[in-house]
Design brief:
Helix 1 runs antiparallel to helix 2. The protein has four domains: 1-38; 40-128, Immunoglobulin-like, CATH 2.60.40.3780; 131-231, Immunoglobulin-like (Sandwich), CATH 2.60.40.3710; 234-359, L,D-transpeptidase catalytic domain-like (Beta Barrel), CATH 2.40.440. A hairpin with a 2-residue loop joins strand 18 and strand 19. It contains six helices and 30 strands. It is mostly beta strands.
């Protein structure tokens, strides 16, 4: 080679792929000249042949002295995963989708180099987890719920890496709120806003849990999405002292109903409760609460128009036997007694997650009851049950 050619080759090595391509074109790509052009270097992560790769690993390819034209991450069924290619073709990486566990993957790469088009293939195998965990999320798709309804996640096994789970569940209300998760156990977490949900909005939940490390060798097994609506703000106040039930819709009083709550020795649970479910007809049996049916306080009755507000058996329901006491005195075994007509109206009115606040009763809310545990703690206490700080949901 001439001195000029040697200088040019040195410049090619120093300047990289783009300058090399220009020089090869101008020099006619003689065999002698190509020997001075650096060969393309491709680095794969995970490395070719790697085993026990974590399902949450990011797959990446980098190229030196060559430009990546395309890359495909394929499983054994030739299903591809999304990826992102750098504008200059120097790198490609998977787009964050989790890998399947106990699976084989390959990455096919096409490159443009000074020596022409090249291909590279690398492969790896993901780990086999000790166990996988399934999750259930409620409310379900297309449900309409009240302003007090939390998002509930229940898991099939213990979760020790709670922060990872929280970070992979995206809550998107159509009106942004400040909200937080609270773990009631290693298998159950609830999400609610600082105040009640705004009325008449929608909420989307994307639980991207497939391939998430739940801790202790346990991994999430699938992604879950749900999209539901918050309905009108139904907020009811049951006053055990005035013997009235005041029902509001979006802040306006809809109805004031005479009521009879729990008598002195069997008071109704107080605090901010939520409706858990409802049934047109229920057989109420005192023996389920430890009171024999044949005892003076025993009962077994078919009761109509029941709206459950605690798991311990407190309902708003029809009580035609106590109509003369409703609005005057408290005679029930703990439930909220109203007339049959009023109970049917309230039954048809109620939706899952409506707020029912019981005041002027000596019985405190229970921190373990599903009807009372979500709204009877301070916001600081609620956030204290999260593995991550409270952030705006948007």
């Amino acid at each position: 080679m001439t001195a000029v050619g040697i200088v040019a080759a040195t410049a090619i090595i120093a300047a990289g792929w783009f300058y090399a391509t220009t020089q090869v074109d101008e020099a006619g790509a003689s065999g002698t000249f190509l020997s001075a052009v650096p060969k393309v270097t491709v680095t794969a992560n995970p490395a070719d042949g790697a085993i026990d790769v974590r399902p949450d690993a990011t797959v990446s390819i980098t190229a030196k002295f060559g430009r990546i034209i395309s890359a495909q991450l394929l499983d054994d069924a030739d299903q591809s995963s999304a990826g992102v290619l750098a504008p200059d073709g120097s790198a490609w990486s998977s787009a964050g989708s989790a890998l399947a566990s106990a699976s084989h993957y390959r990455v096919n790469v096409k490159l443009d180099t000074p020596r022409g088009m090249k291909t590279r293939v690398s492969s790896f195998t993901t780990l086999t987890p000790t166990a996988t965990v399934s999750a259930r999320v409620s409310p379900g798709d297309n449900a309409t719920v009240g302003v007090g309804q939390p998002i509930i996640m229940k898991f099939s096994d213990r979760v020790t890496n709670k922060a990872a789970v929280e970070k992979h569940v995206i809550v998107t209300p159509s009106t942004p709120v400040i909200g937080s998760w609270h773990w009631f156990s290693d298998t159950e977490a609830h999400y609610r806003p600082q105040q009640y949900w705004p009325a008449n909005i929608t909420v989307n939940v994307a639980a991207n849990l497939a391939g998430v490390d739940f801790g202790s060798g346990v991994w999430g097994d699938r992604n879950i999405t749900t999209h539901y609506a918050i309905g009108d703000a139904h907020v009811t106040t049951v006053d055990a002292a005035s013997h009235e039930m005041t029902v509001t819709v979006n802040g306006a009083v809809a109805r004031v109903i005479p009521a009879s709550t729990g008598r002195n020795d069997l008071p109704t649970m107080g605090g901010t409760l939520i409706t858990l479910d409802k049934a047109a007809s229920v057989i109420m049996d005192s023996s389920t609460n430890g009171v024999p049916v044949d005892s003076p306080d025993g009962y077994r009755e078919t009761v109509l128009w029941n709206v459950r507000i605690t798991n311990s058996g407190i309902f708003v329901h029809a009580a035609p036997w106590s109509v003369s006491d409703q609005g005057r005195t408290n005679v029930s075994h703990g439930c909220v007694n109203v007339s049959e007509e009023a109970a049917q109206w309230f039954y048809n009115f109620s939706q899952l997650g409506d707020i029912v606040t019981v005041v002027n009763t000596p019985r405190p809310p229970s921190p373990s009851d599903a009807g009372s545990r979500d709204w009877n703690m301070t916001w600081a206490e609620w956030v204290g049950g999260s593995a991550t700080p409270a952030l705006p949901a948007s």
